[in-house]
Amino acid sequence: MGMIRPFEEERIEIKEFKQMLSSCSSVQRRKDDDRFHDQPEKLALQSDHDVTETLICVTSGVSFVGIAIVNRLLLRGYSVRVLVTNEEELEKLREIAGNIDITNGTTMLTAVTADINEVQSLSDAFNGCQGVFHTAAFIDPAGLSGYSKAMAGIELKTCENVMVACSRTTTVRRCVLTSSLVACLWREDSSNCDNDPSSSSSSSTIINHHSWSDESVCLKNKLWYALGKLRAEKCAWRIIGEQKRVRLVTICAGLVTGPEFPHRNPTSTFAYLKGVQHMYAKGLLATVDVHRLADAHLLLFEAMDDEESFGRYICFDNVVQCQTEADDLARQLGSNATIITGNNPSPASPRFQLSNLKLSKLMMTTLGCNSNNNVI
Fold it and tell me: What is the pTM of this model?
């Protein structure tokens, strides 16, 4: 894939995050004095929901996506409990938090250690929280693009444990699960081409929140990342459906981009890109900036107050459809564009269409502005 640029942008982002945390800490101290009743800086979201006393737990909160979500939650005024599973994650969170004590439970950002293999441990970690964001972010111990069939099994089991824990924890009422667009794309078509994301037996060329990948296609073509996300998401809906106590939103995100994303999010990035040439050829290679994805998480969490605003959502902000866009993505990956385009720099028909209309309509309603998403 070539050389990836240094960590300068990551260092800048961590510095800005520390400054934001320091500001939030000052607000918390003033609030504890019972002399201050305003809220800290908010995102431009319109909601009647009172967030000042709401505690949210974020799993994998020190991951690429997790950090962005935690940042947005704190800016909105939520108190955030980051679930860590080992000392390394705890030290990373301490580094990000700077001089803020994340273990005394009196600041807007705190840490809790839990065993993701134990439902009771997770339930204890979630206790007192009104919502859970399960980012389902995993670090591949084998290195780049090593997301294996075993990891797909880990993803499924972890998601199952989180959902059962949410259902058993009396305070948790809402859960947001970070899934992936590849859980929607991979299906067999009439030409029986291997590794071909396409329509199912129906003639529809639209891929939206109703679409699901075919598990047999994922298995046959060893699309382990797609398989893991697919099985985990279906498991989540089954458990929540059986319990009928916690509301669930799943966000099927495109390839997550942002500052130095191939280095800061390597496992998901390179696992997502398996079969990239076929996605590109069919018009299904979509990306989403990590900060926009974090905004979508927060918006959908708050929208769950409305009985109709929960369920499954597709999230992307760009579809790679031409040589220029492929060149730009390849540059960010530190690679040559042929990795993406193969021998087809300009994809030909037939093409399929991605639709994030459900999310875009909600965003336009909530934010009161026009969206520049690709919608149909």
Answer: 0.83
Catalytic residues: 229
Q: Which helix (H) or strand (E) holds 156?
A: helix 149-168
Contact in structure between 311 and 364 (CB atoms under 8 Å): no
Q: List 289's β-bridge partners, or say none.
A: 257
Cβ neighbours, 10 Å, residue 335:
15
Of 42, 64, 74, 29, the C-alpha closest to 255 is: 64
CB 2 within 8 A of CB 56: no
**Residue 194: predicted pLDDT:** 44
CATH number of 9-367: 3.40.50.720
Q: What would the DSSP string read from start to end of 20-89?
A: HHHHHHHHHHHHHTT---------S-------TT-EEEEETTTSHHHHHHHHHHHHHT-EEEEEE-SHHH
Tell me if 227 sits within 8 A of 219, measured CB to CB: yes
Joined tokens for residue 368: 């009161």
Digit-coded pLDDT (tens) for 230-258 = 999 999 999 999 988 999 999 999 999 99
Concatenate the DSSP letters of all residues of 290-340 into one string.
HHHHHHHHHHHHHHTTSTTS-EEEEE-SEE--SHHHHHHHHHHHTS-THHH
What residue segments make up the domains of the chain, in order of their start? 9-367
Percent pLDDT > 70 in the chain is 74
